[in-house]
């Protein structure tokens, strides 16, 4: 789960963690494989939403692991307004994230969803004043970058796959992941720090 994915929108470079900046009207030609890649790989993906995420822009948000939105942000399943269907894996992601009935409401009505309502539905993790956006996202990114990134990546993949596999398969995959993670240097460090009663110093190994 090492932070190695960089994106650029309107020449706004991201920092050393995979942080996406979404501004109103700045979602360009983003394809379905991008949404799939965000949801399935072992790297932590972040969105900060400082405007309106509409259509596939909203679905990129849904595919990310942590989403921080400013109070003025909004989300729109705009497709019905144009006589087309949701793309970018929206029909797959929405019901898994917020439930079928609410997903149908958003898709069939195409109404603007405020950041506060998106938070209450579970679409975003935090809603903050615009002046606190960079600091909030920076803090979250730093915490994860300093964590046991191999364990975090495996945990993300187990959580994502739990929605699509049966219980026996989920338990088997968890046992395999546990076998892998216990052999890492970070697991050894985590146990040592517990015994020695000190903060752990993970290295992503």
Task: Please outline what is shown here.
The chain has 205 residues and is of the alpha/beta class. It has helices at 32-40, 56-63, 90-98, 100-109, 115-121, 133-145, 149-161, 167-181, 185-196, and strands spanning 8-9, 12-13, 19-22, 46-49, 52-54, 66-70, 74-76, 112-114, 126-128.
Note down, in words, how this protein is organized.
It is built from nine helices and nine strands. By secondary structure, it is α/β, with parallel strands linked by helices. The strands form three sheets. It has a four-stranded parallel beta sheet, sandwiched between helices. A three-stranded mixed beta sheet has the order 5-7-8. Strands 1-2 form a two-stranded antiparallel ribbon. 32% of the residues are buried.
CATH topology of the largest domain: 2-enoyl-CoA Hydratase, Chain A, domain 1
> How are the strands of the largest sheet arranged?
3-4-6-9
Rg calculated over all Cα atoms? 18 Å
Number of strands: 9
Order of helices and strands: EEEHEEHEEHHEHEHHHH
| Unreliable residue runs | 1-34
Structural class: alpha/beta
CATH architecture of the largest domain: Alpha-Beta Complex
CATH top level label of the largest domain: Alpha Beta
Distance between the termini: 10 Å
Specify the biggest β-sheet. Answer: 4 strands, parallel
Approximately how much beta-strand content do the residues carry? 5-15%
Total domains, how many?
2
Determine the number of helices (DSSP H or I, runs of at least 4 residues).
Answer: 9
| Average pLDDT number | 79
The shape is flat
């Amino acid at each position: 789960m090492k932070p190695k994915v960089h994106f650029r929108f309107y020449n706004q470079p991201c920092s050393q963690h995979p942080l996406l900046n979404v501004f109103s009207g700045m979602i360009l030609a983003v394809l379905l494989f991008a949404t799939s890649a965000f949801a399935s790989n072992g790297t932590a993906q972040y969105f900060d939403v400082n405007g309106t995420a509409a259509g596939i822009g909203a679905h990129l948000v849904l595919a990310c692991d942590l989403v921080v939105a400013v109070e003025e942000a909004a989300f729109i399943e705009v497709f019905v307004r144009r006589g087309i269907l949701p793309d970018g894996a929206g029909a797959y992601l929405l019901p898994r994230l917020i439930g079928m009935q609410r997903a149908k409401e958003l898709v069939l009505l195409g109404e603007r969803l405020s950041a506060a309502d998106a938070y209450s539905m579970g679409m975003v993790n935090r809603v903050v004043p615009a002046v606190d956006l960079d600091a909030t996202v920076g803090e979250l990114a730093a915490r994860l970058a300093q964590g046991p990134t191999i364990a975090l990546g495996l945990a993300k993949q187990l959580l994502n796959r739990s929605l699509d596999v049966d219980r026996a398969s989920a338990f088997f995959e968890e046992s395999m992941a546990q076998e892998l993670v216990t052999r890492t240097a970070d697991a050894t460090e985590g146990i040592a720090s517990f015994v020695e009663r000190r903060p752990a110093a993970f290295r992503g190994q």
